[in-house]
């Protein structure tokens, strides 16, 4: 097999495409021939030694991927060679093969494209868990999505619309805003050239959004929170801007608002049965055409550094995917 090996987590430049022995599945594991893998923001942080999880060196990065089961270890039930699966495994995806716990594999129904499947679990599970579980989003409510053109943002647009909500997409350029409208957002705000608070006031008649979905953090957080509706729910999804904001808690008091943490990975560990039901519903929505990953680029696996460079430029709309031919 071949893989991008991280021997020293000093950045993308330190990754090396190399030959490695093919892994053998241990008890409870599957060996997957990887067809496609997607880039997530933690994939960049982990090779820079900036992520909360620090795997033992050396390691193969790549959180999320899809492919075909080649072999199964002892005790594995429900999977056999030839099955199509997707997985959010933490590491191992930027390679031609990986061994993963069978419990992390999501069976793919017929017709689920590998490139789509590789870009599906993290963004759609995060957004569904945030909007439907943590925020209890209701039909007719208004959702503000910050960083709406990114991977989780584009997924959140589709899930919120499938739930019958009104969506205001906030992004950093007119081009990204236009793409969000194409994806189903009802309105958009370019927060690089307009006042987020003024635009929200105009778009909601002064009421504010019922739910704020924030994977960005940084300077936008307080502006958005000051605009939240009475009994609003502010979803803390991530900090892609790099800065963890400090929100004045008196605003939560004055608006009767909730600040709600969203950690899908921990939810999946602690509540695996609910997570499995959620993934099943999302797969059904994909089959019905209600959700579909937005793919910015699909590049060969050997061009992973170029994909990382594009991710770092913050020009990506949706997800970047690398594939093994």
TrEMBL record:
Pfam families: ADH_N, ADH_zinc_N. SMART domains: PKS_ER (SM00829). This is NADPH:quinone oxidoreductase family protein. One of its GO terms (molecular function) is oxidoreductase activity. Transmembrane segments: none annotated. Residues 11-322 form the Enoyl reductase (ER) domain.
């Amino acid at each position: 097999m071949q893989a991008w090996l991280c021997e020293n987590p000093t950045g993308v430049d330190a990754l090396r495409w190399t030959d490695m022995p093919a892994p053998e599945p241990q008890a409870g594991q599957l060996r997957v021939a990887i067809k496609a893998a997607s880039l997530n923001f933690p994939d960049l942080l982990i090779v820079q030694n900036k992520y909360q999880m620090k795997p033992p060196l050396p390691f193969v990065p790549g959180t999320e991927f899809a492919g075909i089961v080649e072999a199964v270890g002892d005790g594995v039930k429900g999977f056999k060679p030839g099955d199509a699966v997707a997985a959010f495994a933490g590491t191992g995806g930027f390679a031609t093969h990986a061994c993963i716990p069978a419990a992390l594999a999501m069976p793919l129904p017929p017709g689920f494209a590998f490139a789509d499947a590789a870009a599906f679990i993290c963004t759609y599970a995060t957004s569904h868990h945030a909007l439907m579980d943590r925020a209890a989003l209701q039909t007719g409510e208004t959702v503000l999505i910050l960083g709406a053109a990114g991977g989780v943002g584009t997924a959140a647009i589709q899930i919120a619309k499938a739930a019958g909500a009104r969506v205001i997409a906030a992004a950093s350029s007119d081009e990204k805003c236009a793409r969000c409208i194409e994806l189903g957002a009802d309105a958009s705000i370019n927060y690089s050239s307009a006042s987020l608070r003024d635009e929200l006031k105009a778009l909601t008649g002064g009421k504010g959004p019922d739910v704020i979905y924030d994977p960005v953090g940084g300077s936008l957080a307080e502006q958005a929170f000051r605009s939240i509706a009475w009994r609003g729910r502010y979803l803390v999804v991530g900090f892609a801007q790099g800065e963890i904001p400090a929100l004045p808690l008196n605003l939560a008091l004055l608006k009767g608002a909730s600040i709600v943490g969203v950690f899908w990975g921990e939810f999946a560990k602690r509540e695996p049965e609910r997570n499995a039901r959620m993934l099943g519903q999302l797969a059904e929505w994909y089959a019905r055409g209600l959700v579909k990953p937005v793919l910015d680029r699909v590049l060969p696996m050997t061009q992973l550094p170029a994909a990382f460079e594009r991710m770092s430029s913050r020009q990506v709309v949706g997800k970047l995917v690398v594939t093994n031919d």
